[in-house]
Amino acid sequence: MSTATGGKRRRMSPLQAQQNRAGLAFVSPTLLVVLVIVIVPILWTVLLSFQQAKLIDLQSMNLFGNWTFGNFVQVFTQPGFWSSLWTTLVYTVGGTVGSIALGLVAALALRRPFRGRGILRGTMLLPYVAPVVAVTFVWETALSPQTGIVNSWGQHLLGWHKPIAFLSTSDYRADLLGLHVHLPLALLTVVAFEIWRYFPFAFLFLLARLQAVPGGIEEAATVDGATLTQRFRHILLPQLMPVIALLSVLRFIMTFNKFDDVYLLTGGDSGTDVVSVRVYDFLTASYDVGSAAAQALVLAVILMVLLGIYFAFFAKRVQEEQA
Amino acid sequence: MTRAQFEDRFFGIVRYAVIAVLVIATVFPFYYMVMLSFRSTGALLLDPGALWPNLRELTLGTYRDILEPTSRGGQGLLAMLRNSALVSLGTVVLTLAASVPGAWAISRLKFVGSRQISALFLAVYLFPATLLAVPLFVMFSRIGLQGSLIGLAVVYIAQTVPVSIYMLKNYFTTVPLSIEEAAALDGCSRMTILRKVVLPLAAPSLMATGLYVFMIAWNEFLFALLFLAATPGKWTVSLGLSQMNNAIQVPTTVLMAGSVVLTIPVIVLFYAAERFLTEGLTSGADKS
After folding, report:
1. Which of A166, B126, B137, B279 lies 20 to 30 A from B163 at CA?
2. Interfacial B residues in 53-82 facing A (CB < 8 Å)
3. Which residues does the UniProt record annotate as the domain ABC transmembrane type-1 (chain A) (predicted)?
4. How many angstroms separate the CA of residue A174 from the nearest CA in chain B?
């Protein structure tokens, strides 16, 4: 950087320069930690995915060598990859839409103050804060064909002929009003779990936004004769849209990469083989590090493409609304 | 009745129905867990649909079974509780130490690249954990950190630093700038301002962030499974319970007792800090 006057960069005043140094000094420890344990490993994933690497070879292997596209060819041609990707998409969209919709309903129901609302608000968050291992156990037990309360009640009160194995039935034939429908029951159950566990997250954000909505507009609309649904549709919903959009992106990313919920509930069997469980299987069953890295990378790239499409679509709509 | 009156009345009723259903849906699984943990396996098999246990069959044997060390015929959950506590507390201390200076710098100081670094921290928060799993797995088996609690804590720091920076940054911006300026005029260095002025004022929020980090570390499962599965002595509670469920034939009621033990610390901490926690997490949401 030139110190000559008239250089392109404006020179900092001594005070600014001092603040600049202090800022960098304060941020550098944090930055260093993030670089070493997040950024470097991710870059290494990219390298590994282009290498023929098994865990045993890694002791002797150097960092750059044996370049290959074999891992990616393997990922795309392996049986089950495309169906697994489809399963992931269904799971993600179902979980995202469902949890935000339920969160919205809960936030609207708890919007106006009443006795005990504070306690109820805390209670609604229980599924989200409780350990995933504990809550998956409870679901597994409650849905179990032998010891589960759901099947016991279903048989006694609802007249089910035999217990339903919710978490291990990939194709359930149901008779609805004389129609035979095939339901991917295990997948639907996992999606239901996802909705149950993550609706509190959406609820929390939407309730915070609802409480910041000024009351005046709604009162004016009421005076003008707008009904409850009209007020929701034309006053509340537009104000909630930015939060809903943000939640959709957050939940989509998180659910797309979700591993433990599915792994603990079904182990990825019975039509619930989401991609993250496949990555885990590659890694631990065959110690095929290269393939696992390639698979994780493909998953991340697909996620980025989907988000890119979403933002392109969303940005366009915002522009249209402003025009 | 006009449409407006009808809707007011209709949704007034629907609202209470919705609240009732939601309360049942969120509370019942936890009630079910606690209830089963006090029943005996035989009684559960005989009557799986019971909503409350028969008073005569109540037992504490499940808790003894799950907590006692394996040498005395139990499942050894106490040792796992110790492992979980060590990892989680270590993660909290190190994560806060790593994120406080950075969060303060981003929220207060103007420096070259501050916006880019801020964006990087946010991006890191959204990176999928599966992308991290493979290289960390490889790295740790190479340098011998696999099967160690320290290695696991390092991974948890990577997972929690971004969200901790985000929460702390929001808190720090609520500390009035004038107080910091007054301290600076009195001759405090920036380090002193951070230590003596900002941190005491942000203490409750620091605690809330710490609790959130603790909950993430305490509940985590994937990385514990990847790194510790082969070393039973180092199992955390989450990992240990899931391994019991898979490999060894442990009765459901005993597993439920273990789940209760696993859940209680989190719920207690959550209720203790709920207000700070919810405000910290959503403080960005009501501004947009």
Report:
1. B137
2. none
3. 85-310
4. 24
CA distance B113 to A203: 35
pLDDT reported for residue B155: 84
For residues B162 and B229, state if they share a domain. Answer: yes
Give the end of a domain, one of B25, B47, B67.
B67
**Strand pairing category for A172-176 and A179-183:** antiparallel
- Which residues of chain A neighbour B158 with C-beta distances below 8 Å? 33-34, 37-38, 41
Classified as helix, coil or strand, B279 is: helix
User: Distance between CA B79 and CA B61 in Å, rounded?
Assistant: 18
SS3 A194: helix
Cα–Cα distance list, B219 to A28, A132, A260 (Å):
29, 6, 11
CATH code linked to domain A84-285: 1.10.3720.10
User: Taking CB atoms and an 8 Å cutoff, what residues of chain B touch A299?
Assistant: 128, 130-131
Tens of pLDDT, residues A175-191: 766 677 777 888 999 99
What is the Cα–Cα distance from B112 to B98, expressed in whole angstroms? Answer: 20
Nearest to B91 by CA among B183, B207, B273, B218: B218
DSSP string for residues in B96-134? HHHHHHHHHHHHH---TTHHHHHHHHHHHHHS-HHHHHH
ipTM for the assembly: 0.86
A148's tokens: 């589960």
Q: Do B257 and B168 fall within a single domain?
A: yes
The predicted-structure confidence for A24-67, as pLDDT tens digits, reads as follows 888 888 888 888 878 888 888 888 888 776 666 665 555 556 67
Which residue type occupies B179? I
The verdict on B121 touching A (C-beta cutoff 8 Å) is: yes
Q: Is A125 helix (H, G, I), strand (E, B) or coil?
A: coil
Domain interval for residue B16: 3-67
Q: What is the mean pLDDT of residues B50-64?
A: 79
Distance between CA A198 and CA A262 in Å, rounded? 14
B225 and B169 inside one domain: yes
Interface of B with A in 138-157 (CB under 8 A): 138-139, 141-142, 154-155, 157
**Residues in CB range of B8: below 8 A, 6 or more apart:** A227, A228
Q: How many domains does chain B have?
A: 2
